Amino acid sequence: MPRKKIALIGGGQIGGVLTQLIAQRQLGDVVLFDIVENLPQGKTLDIIEASRIDDMNVSVTGTNDYKDIAGSDLVIITAGLPRKPGMSRDDLLVTNAKIMKSVAEGVKTYAPNAIAIIISNPLDAMVTLFQKVTGFPANRVIGQAGVLDSSRFSTFIAMELGVSVRDINAMVLGGHGDTMVPLVRYANVNGVPVQEMLERKYNDAKKAKEVMDAMVQRTKMAGGEVVNLLKTGSAFYSPASAAIMMAEAVLFDQKRLLPVCAYLNGEFGVNGFYVGVPAVLGENGVEKVIELTLCEEEKAAFDNSVNAVKSLVDDMNRLGL
Ligand code: A3D
Hints:
With 321 residues, the protein is an alpha/beta fold. It has 2 domains: 5-145, Rossmann fold; 146-321, Lactate dehydrogenase/glycoside hydrolase, family 4, C-terminal (L-2-Hydroxyisocaproate Dehydrogenase, Chain A, domain 2, Alpha-Beta Complex), CATH 3.90.110. Helix content is 45%, strand content 19%. It has 11 helices and 14 strands. Strand 8 (172-173) and strand 9 form a beta hairpin. Helix 1 (13-25) crosses helix 10 and helix 7 crosses helix 8. Residues 9-15, 34-36, 78-83, 92, 96, 99, 102-103, 119-121, 123, 144-145, 148, 176, 233-236, 239 line the site of 3-acetylpyridine adenine dinucleotide (A3D).
């Protein structure tokens, strides 16, 4: 079987880590694109110079020319500014929308059959814009946010309970902003509800709820926590890992059930918007959105998050972006 071709648009922090992870795992040949001259060429040269050490038998090249992404099976987009301390993701809307438009034109022209995974913020709006400009079928345009937010939630739960994070199943739905919805009731450790484990640990339902609320809050603010520590950029190792999980699901047709930013056609009572929901990912991108029963409180939080996404998309349309 011929190797897959993977184009990475944006050769910054996340793009660099993505390149290295793809090469080390030999997921396919990589073309790293950026508008900054020599940046993608320099990063890819640095990475392939470790191919003897890391056993990387794939081609890895850097470019400033969209022609070189021709025929890509998968495109992962990280082009756009990251936030600085004090900024919300939504503050990036105007700048990153202009960048996303040019990226979408390039991908539409040179990789019209690709599946696209978007990482640039504000995530839900950027996914919406990319799909609109390319006209790609909605299932072929997917946003990465929920996999990372869920991994962050799982990490905090594992740290609190002192169990392996491999045994934690926890999902975060909704838009990728401060209104995101960590699903407390569904969070479990190999089937055992996290809420029950916390109640046993503290033998006090009120205290257990406080601990869970604090983990939910930390999850919602986890991106900002890293931004405040780094000062000059945002998280990049974990977002790259999250996109790799999604890329593998698509490239190897794994049918993984993952929380991703997917287009909704009435599921969860939402029509015509991209938002974070559980979905089956395979060779066709989003193959099925999985609906689940939300209690009144979860539904209200989810609707609130969807409204935040809708209002950002409205802003984008109003500003003619
Ligand atoms: P950074 O290291 O600044 O890299 C962005 C790259 O985009 C730079 O190398 C730029 O030169 C490049 N770029 C700018 N304009 C264009 C253009 N028109 N075409 C192609 N490339 C261009 O940022 P980063 O890699 O840390 O983050 C990238 C994006 O991901 C930002 O918007 C972040 O906010 C976002 N992000 C999302 C998540 C999610 O989980 C959704 C997490 C972390 C960061």
